[in-house]
Amino acid sequence: MAATSTTPTHGYSADKDALLKRLNRIEGQVRGIARMVDENRYCVDILTQIGAVQAAVEKVALGLVDGHVRHCMAAAKPGERDDKATELMAAVGRLLKTA
Amino acid sequence: MAATSTTPTHGYSADKDALLKRLNRIEGQVRGIARMVDENRYCVDILTQIGAVQAAVEKVALGLVDGHVRHCMAAAKPGERDDKATELMAAVGRLLKTA
Amino acid sequence: MAATSTTPTHGYSADKDALLKRLNRIEGQVRGIARMVDENRYCVDILTQIGAVQAAVEKVALGLVDGHVRHCMAAAKPGERDDKATELMAAVGRLLKTA
Amino acid sequence: MAATSTTPTHGYSADKDALLKRLNRIEGQVRGIARMVDENRYCVDILTQIGAVQAAVEKVALGLVDGHVRHCMAAAKPGERDDKATELMAAVGRLLKTA
After folding, report:
1. What are the tens digits of pLDDT across the range D2-59?
2. Rg (CA), chain A
3. Highest mean pLDDT, choosing among A82-96, B43-57, C23-37
4. Domain residues of chain D, as ranges?
5. What is the CATH code for A13-98?
6. Does residue B23 contact residue B43 with C-beta atoms inside 8 Å?
7. Which residues of chain B lie closer than 8 angstroms to C97, CB-CB?
8. Which residues of C touch B97 (CB under 8 A)?
9. Looking at residue C87, what is its pLDDT?
10. Which of the residues B59, B65, B80, B83 would you substitute to probe the D interface, choosing the one with the greatest number of D C-beta atoms within 10 Å?
């Protein structure tokens, strides 16, 4: 939130620290999965961990969409709002497709 | 790959190196997303990268399911096959839910 | 479409006819799948048709989200906008979960 | 199960009646959504019903995958099993993509 005059504020600014913490945790989870593969662990157990990563990544995505809707779109000038909505919908569509 | 005589072989054993390479790349992608957040990049651009991570993670998951079906299930004794199928379906169900 | 003075206009109002046509087509697709089951058709062929239904249903869902973002949220008074965003996010979250 | 001598048995044969009942229910749900659109109901309420349809369709899909794994693949001759697995993986991949 406390963006300086030169830093643009985004929807996620208020939660930037929490967001970075989550991304670090996901990075660690992915490293853990690589370790399981390296140790020849059972594939179904690896799939369970992959499911956990997917859920965590999706939570991050939903948080960013939420911030975009509440902040970027709310802050948009009337003339820009439609473009922001188009961007949002493209992002939501991609999330559903790749989900 | 080089499973020793005491290490069980799994469906992904033949592709272990490729799988590890992919997981390393995903780890790097997640780190890149954290960097984007840190640099206050635009949330929709971050969402695009998150979509790429989700697609990559899903590809790994599908590869593991494929290996489970072709190898673990094929190698299972008739009496174990039903348990392997139950495990598989639980994993596929989780993938769809968290997807 | 031609919302009377007593009927609230929604995001999908302009496309109501197209939306109804799509839903009718989906209904027909589901009926076709039931017929395939009744005729003992091969399960993988049925799954292919189910995939087509899921894609069609998702397209309808994305259209409704789009309308909500562009119309309901834009038409909301500043004090209501946050509630509309919360409703939207709950809906998007459910789409991703059930997807 | 009660497939006649000329009708091939599929993975879903034992549950054919239950499967048809579910598909009929989904057809009714889709018709209900069309009615909501016709009555100009609130788009977020319609999205909630769409989420219910998606969950129901996915349950049908998982049931068919389960039947394919347990019956079609188990009944496949060794030489055919790989083809059956390839078909299964294509179907699971499509489910995830359209999910």
Report:
1. 444 445 567 787 789 999 999 999 999 999 999 999 999 999 999 999 999 999 999 9
2. 17
3. C23-37
4. 13-98
5. 1.20.58.1000
6. no
7. 97
8. 97
9. 86
10. B65
